[in-house]
Amino acid sequence: MSVKESREQRSAIMRAVKGRDTAPEIAVRTMLRRFAPFYRLHRKDVPGTPDIAYIGAKRAIFVHGCFWHGHDCPRGARSPKANADYWRAKIARNVARDAAHQAALAAQGWRALTIWECELKDKAGAEKKLREFLG
Known about the structure:
By secondary structure, this protein is of the alpha+beta class. It is 46% helix and 13% strand. The chain contains five helices and four strands; from the N terminus they run H-H-E-E-E-H-H-E-H.
């Protein structure tokens, strides 16, 4: 049986969710260090503030959590039971914002790649995808 948190407890839990230097992001950076180490992190001068950016090559890599960015995998497709309307709207806003960032990057001549959290279960496949994108 799940325990119902108070509003303050739930707020504290949600505040603790990190926006950068997450485990999936660190896993991608660890892969990249082996074959393409000279990246920059969280560049605010690049549309969408990509998690990883190769400025000279105009390549941006976003590492997205499946739930938070509405991926169509089992983890991303599950819907919260509590406050469902809020979360559906929140995730829809995230998806729309991601699409706007992709369009802004393309307009400035950047190529962008999204690595999904679920893709990191297959490390070889994720590394191959990164190599093809950067190669």
